[in-house]
Prior knowledge:
The protein is an alpha/beta fold. It has one domain: Spore Coat Polysaccharide Biosynthesis Protein SpsA, Chain A (Alpha-Beta Complex), CATH 3.90.550. The protein has helices at residues 16-22, 58-64, 78-84, 95-115, 136-146, 184-191, 197-200, 205-218, 225-235, 257-265, 270-289, 298-305; strands at 5-11, 32-39, 68-73, 121-126, 151-153, 179-183, 236-237. The protein has a 7-stranded mixed β-sheet with strand order 3-2-1-4-6-5-7, with helices on both faces. Strand 1, helix 1 and strand 2 form a beta-alpha-beta unit. Helix 1 (16-22) packs parallel to helix 2.
Amino acid sequence: MKKKLALIIRGTSREIEFLSSLIPQMNRPIDHDIILILRQTSRNAPTRLKFREKTFNEKKVLKNLKNCFFLKLPPIDPIFIKEKFISPAGPTHREHIMLSQLYNSFLGVQFLKSTGVKYDYVMNMRTDYIPEYYPWFDGYIDKYLKNNKKIIIDGTATLNYRYPDNPMIPWQGSLSDHFSFSSYEQFLDLWDFQNDLSKLWTGMTETTIFRSIFYKYNLDHVQSPRKNLSFLKKFFYWNENTSKFPKNILYPGIVSEDLKRKIIKNLKNYKHNKKIHSLIKEKIKENWEKKKEPILSNFQKKLLDK
């Protein structure tokens, strides 16, 4: 029986137009549905990195993406978010932005539950995420099966600790919110916690996601560095990233608009497109190599060595 995959792409417009051109070319034929969840932003509202959200050609995107279900969300209300959630730890000035990513995924959860369709695999990613493995669908299916069907996640901010050198902030484990690939059941385990969000919210998406699934699987909220690391290794697979710079996020300016046009024009076949995928990943790598700001302090590195 053929396997069916659901691809959830969620967030603001960011690189969705470029992604929509890449997706049909970066995959071998596999039965799939695409759930595109785009959140509008307030007019002239900058992103966390002070960029303006891009306008995009909606008709072009939907023409490129076959079997696509397009869902639109309004701008999130920061006043409502501040009234609803009280953060015991972590940053406060951009919590509504981080929470909007969770709400986007929650809509994906409800959509899949409501389809009445059996999905064997679910890939959930941001609108500016370039998948790590090629081809994008088969590459992840192969990696998933070869690693004992563990949930595949991004290595950015996936750590068995958070804030270990700051005694004023509660210590927590974390899971990246950039990407996940799993079975349908595992997808629900990881992302279906909207009803408990007010009790679980820590002030950061990655520590909240960790806290949710940690409790689901252990029925226990008590964390420790060793316990969290064992938990991560048992249920998840990821390529470690010890820098604070995302290796798979295509931030504005990393690939110029001119290069994007050339890439789209030269998409041809499986072997050729693999080289294009590698080129995009190299451009992301080059961008971060110009910056030398590590995420790990010496104290944190010593913890990892123990």
